[in-house]
Design goal:
Blueprint: H1 2-11, H2 13-32, H3 37-54, H4 69-84, H5 89-99, H6 103-111, H7 115-142, E1 144-149, H8 156-159, E2 167-171, E3 174-175, H9 179-186, E4 191-198, E5 201-208, H10 218-222, E6 226-230, H11 242-272, H12 279-301, H13 305-322, H14 325-349, H15 360-376, H16 380-385, H17 392-395, H18 401-405, H19 415-423, H20 425-447, H21 451-470, H22 480-499, H23 501-513, H24 518-534
Antiparallel strand pairs: 1-2, 1-6, 2-3, 2-4, 4-5
Length: 535
Amino acid sequence: MLKEAAVEEQTNPKVRQLEKAALFFLILMVLFSPHSIAASQTAWITGSFLLLLRCFLKPKFNLQRTPLDAALWAFFLWSFISCLLSYTPLISLDRLRSVAIFLVFYFVINCIKTREMAIKLCFLLIGSCMINVIYVPIERILGRGVEIHGLSADSPLTKALLMDGDTLLKVNGKKITSADEVLSELEKNEESDVFFYRPDFYYTVRVKRSDLLPGNISLEKLGIQSWKKSHNWRSTGFFGHWTTYADVLQLIASLTFGLLIALASQIAYFSNSKSRISRKNLLSICLLFFSFAMMTLALIFSGTRAPLIALLISATFTLFLNKNKRMLLAFVAISGPVLLIGSIYLHQSRGVGFIDEKDESTRYRQVVYREALQLWSESLRHVIFGIGMDSVKVYAEKWRLFDNGKLPMGHFHSTPIQILVERGLPALLIWIWIILIYSKIILSALKNSSGIEKGVLLGIFGGFLGFLMSGLVHYNLGDQEVAMIFFLLMGIAFTLYNSQKPERLSVSSTSTRASGKNSFIKNLILLSSNFSTAR
């Protein structure tokens, strides 16, 4: 039957074309995921539709089944029930689309046929990410907008509540690069919308043409002493927000670091055995090191603390699992200066430290965490089913959230707390179930891996730990750009795990032949032997 199916598949051009097309859109999804959620989701949905069409053709297409199926679908089902019982069912059901992003996992595992393809997609993801990573320092060197200084009390900008040090970015939707352009745009209309950046926030204010001052030059009419291009802002890559960019960078930088460590370990082994090291491996090491260093720099420029700390934790666990004490000690020595540089940059750009009780964002989180837990514990309905996703947008005032309206409305800035409050305790327990199963899959795959494959798994596991750590203070699971890459890497990890089935089956079949009191001992010896060979 298998031979007949294989022959039929080879002679059925529609099957080959659909599978190749689905793989093409998977590649597009990987290429776009570090840059654009719209493009990557379009590729994912199109590719998934092609796979769906493939299911109606012969030979029968067997969808991959995984140990994560029950947990993932239970999480989605409970989220759906929570939406139906939400205070705002229509709003919550619309938000359910973000929960459905887990289907990326199934798209990946049903498109990738070999471990070689899985590894190639990892390098493609890293290479694509380097486009925005290299753009970040170049953009910083060139500068942007018009940073204003020395505002007079009667300046039209002061009357619009602009402050010294603000950076004007657009006037009436048009990007501006000089004070002359600002004046020119303001003179065109009676009132103009000025979009500007003030550390940590973007605002739009209205400036009146009648408030312009008399004078011969733009500085006099604008009521400022000087201006310059700004070189201080929180980098966002090609995304719209720095937190999204930072969490995406953490996942991909962790993958890069895992590959870097795997190749470095191979070179260290060749050096000890006095074997010749290929130029290809040396070039790969250099490129991966450069990529990781640039990603770390871009992460620092994002001014986002949690993902940077998460990356350090991710790298530490990666080295710990790799079991190389020298590399671990070297990383600890290097991470100190990196933290120092990051702390200095944070202080200069945002006026905060890594842990700063006076920081407004820290205070904001303390307030919303306390309010969220109080809201969750108010009734049995909230405890079990939650309040419904995004229902705070309607009921925030009634529930006196965000310091009774004194703070900007947002979310609860924590993945576990957000799940708990919006979808109830069962949803959080299911999410923990997913975490445990996924951890078991990766650690099991690591035991039977070596070389580049081991590097991929180390990097994915490190990024997974970083994702969880950052998620304590960021709602990164609800950020579709971040969640897409998270489930993409989950699919790659499972593909590598699934490709090792013959090794795991050989272990189990051999151990079942053992009998009596010696079976357990023989099994341990066999597992130890396989683990040593993999290493």
